[in-house]
Amino acid sequence: MLLYFQVAVDEFSYGKIFSSWWGNKYALQGGLELPLPYADLAMEITAVRPYTYAHYMNHTMYSHDGKALGYPKGSNIVDLTLQANVPIKNYVDWTCKLSLSRSGSEGSSWKDNYHDIFAGEIQTGEAHWFDGVITDEFTLQNSFYIPVMAHHRFLIGHEMKKSEELSHRGFAAWQFFY
Fold first, then answer.
1. Dihedrals φ, ψ of 169, to 5°?
2. Measuring CA to CA, which of 12, 73, 106, 157 is 20 to 30 A from 124?
3. Residue 4 confidence (pLDDT)
4. Strand stretches in 76-165, DSSP E
């Protein structure tokens, strides 16, 4: 059994630590992995405050080459993920992942410039969980890993995502690893 927890902190003000001040930027993530004889089960919960990855200067935002760093689903989110890894004989591994998340639209992007958003109220502005338009998202992903040679495997899968609309995505890859 593996139990883990991690925290990312940015711009905390000690005097405002338990308030709704927008600058209390943090991310929490914890999980449990449980190996069983027939499968490996995992559960993970992630919570990221609004504006956690944002900054007022481009070169200090949590990004690289125009892509966000940090939690892949952004900030102003709470996400619960359940995963099962099941070996099917000795030839195929099946992974099923279910993710349920709730996010708010305000403060969710690393591109947000908080000097513009909180102009004149940098020291007093507030940000609350799920500010803006609330989006509930359900994602179900199934993947099959098929070993081909000693250090190669073929991956094929399907993802179904439901937020405002239902979407489907198929994917395949050839993986090489050492």
1. -145, 125
2. 73
3. 96
4. 77-88, 92-104, 134-149, 152-162
